Amino acid sequence: MGLYGKCGYLDSVLQLFDEMPHRDIASWNTVISSVVKEMMYERAFELFRDMRRIDGFRIDHFTLSTILVAARGLASMVGREIHAHVIKIGFESNISVINALIRFYTKCGSIKHVVALFEKMRVRDVITWTEMITAYMEFGLTDLALEVFDKMPARNSISYNAILSGFCQNGEGSKALAFFCRMVEEGVELTDFTLTGVLNACGLLMEAKISKQIHGFILKFGFGSNACIEAALLDMCTRCGRMADAQKMFSQGSFSQSGSIIWTSMICGYARNAQPEEAISLFCQSQLEEQWLLTKLHQLLVGNSIITMYSKCSNMDDAIKGDEALSVWSKMEKAEHYTSLVGVLGYWGLLEEAEEMINKMPIEPEASVWRALLDACRIHSNTTIGKRAAKHLLAMKPLDPSTYILVSNLYSAYGRWHCSDMVREEMRVKGFRKHPGRSWIFMKQVEEHQKKDFLFYHSAKIAATYGLLMTRPGRPIRIVKNILLCGDCHTFLKYVSIVTGREIFLRDASGHHCFLNGQCSCKDYW
Fold this sequence. Notes:
Blueprint: H1 2-7, H2 10-19, H3 25-37, H4 41-53, H5 61-72, H6 76-88, H7 95-108, H8 111-120, H9 126-138, H10 142-151, H11 157-169, H12 173-185, H13 192-205, H14 208-220, H15 227-239, H16 243-252, H17 259-272, H18 276-286, H19 291-312, H20 319-325, H21 335-347, H22 351-359, H23 367-380, H24 383-396, H25 401-413, H26 417-430, E1 439-441, H27 448-451, H28 459-470, E2 477-481, H29 487-500, E3 504-508, E4 511-516, E5 519-520
Parallel strand pairs: 2-3
Antiparallel strand pairs: 1-2, 3-4, 4-5
């Protein structure tokens, strides 16, 4: 039974279990764990109840730990009932059971119960400490997680990786990179999980120089032959704007049975770097590959990857190419899929069709869907549909200042300055403030006090000008902006690329822009 369970043959497990003339607690635990492994949580609880009612077995710590895994996939009330039963039968001091309870309450989002369980424990093992680190990271309390880590009497690679992945999970790439350096200094064993984590950290930072250093470190110590690490390396290169390196890696790939991950990473990389033609072309090319690859790509692309591709590939001039790939949308069910499709229709100027599609959605439209339509209305100066989109968006997000900014920009783009000023005044009366725009330029020997000089209105202009003054002629300029690039700065950077002959890379809230010879890779749609 155990062998069949590990191999995923649940029908064989259940058949053997039903044929057993006499069952013991080990057989019950095996069948329950096999069912939980296949995520059939309701069935697991049925077996759990039968175990106590039919055979009258006294459950042990393994039973409780396993059934708590099932409880994480069901309502929180079920897990609380199990917790009460744990106390009733005297397992509240069993380490493995308490560890499972900590995992359960972490999943339920109850930090109060997690902390209470941890503080009551007289004896803790390395798993307990690691579970606490994971819990704090899940709740975004990275400093507390690091504090728990520093208090650990003994650590292993799993606890180190929990900190590293937690920083990445919370978008703190700099802290993740610093912690990786600490791991190397302390001689911690670097696993595939560790290296994937540090590559994700580099992707968050989007700094080409740092990504090259980590890339070199991985290749130097011979870690680059693993398919997952190859995919993470490729993804990091695309996030850092190193498309030439990414293309070279992709063309040299061996494409084993894990090759579908690499194909997906490359497709999303093209999309992320405003190269929609290449993304769609590679997506169509992938469907000509072997059947196993097509199957795996379908599983991967009908999810977050296809969202990335279409949200970034909305600027396709040839609608026929879009129609060829849009057939996959028949399988889309999530709101974010519709958000991306609205972006595609918005670029083509099909605003009425986009609004009609939203009204016919089989699920309730989220704010992101209406925001995508409103942004498209701003670009195409359609105040009629824009007003309706804004009405829905304000009803759903009445306290979000960015909604008011979008409405104000819509009126400004159409030349209705009075209406734009009225929206800004409404923001002021309600106490809303627009986040100040900031831009950073990547250079050597820039002091912290100099960076503060960039925090001005139209900061992208200032950052670009500073880069032109402080770098050698012909060198590319890299800029990062914390909010959406305004139209004035966008036009300015196009002219700068003509006059200076420089290539300017800029990342803003919408994605990547590459200015060269007066053209931008986004084709003026962002």
